[in-house]
């Protein structure tokens, strides 16, 4: 039903990056299928999910790529970044190290991707804010300095997940179309 025979006006590739266990796969599951699983297995093999939506009366297919357990430094291949017009740079707000690593993920992203790529810094697991290890101001300052969008999300509670992806997709649409 529905998207049988649907005309797609645009396909936007978006990549998820960040340390292992920050919640990339669950953010993707939440956005693409409105699902969350507590015992998510490490992703095996490069995988993407798609979600088709309407922006400004156009049919946009978001093709969102998830890392294949390649989160070790420099293990993500250039094919992963190729053609990406958007990126979600994800850390776990309860793990300071995952935020500290954003600098090198961003460096790697900028080394591989198009210079106009739209980037969202995502502070995930906001449902665990009592265990917060990264003040919002630190992230805001980093995002502002690096010219990134910024949002705090919870894949578990479905907080801001759709907004985060839609913000990136709408901005890509604004730039490209
Ligand atoms: P990835 O390695 O970055 O893909 O991380 P996963 O999506 O596999 O998630 C790693 C772990 O964090 C899993 O146990 C998830 O259930 C959990 N997780 C992911 N997102 C959230 C969230 O928003 N809140 C909480 N409390 N746990 C989460
Ligand atoms: Mg994963």
Automatic annotation (TrEMBL):
<comment type="similarity">
    <text>Belongs to the small GTPase superfamily. Rab family.</text>
</comment>
<keyword id="KW-0472">Membrane</keyword>
<keyword id="KW-0342">GTP-binding</keyword>
<keyword id="KW-0547">Nucleotide-binding</keyword>
<keyword id="KW-0449">Lipoprotein</keyword>
<dbReference type="GO" id="GO:0005525">
    <property type="term" value="F:GTP binding"/>
</dbReference>
<keyword id="KW-0636">Prenylation</keyword>
<dbReference type="GO" id="GO:0003924">
    <property type="term" value="F:GTPase activity"/>
</dbReference>
<dbReference type="GO" id="GO:0012505">
    <property type="term" value="C:endomembrane system"/>
</dbReference>
<protein>
    <submittedName>
        <fullName>Uncharacterized protein</fullName>
    </submittedName>
</protein>
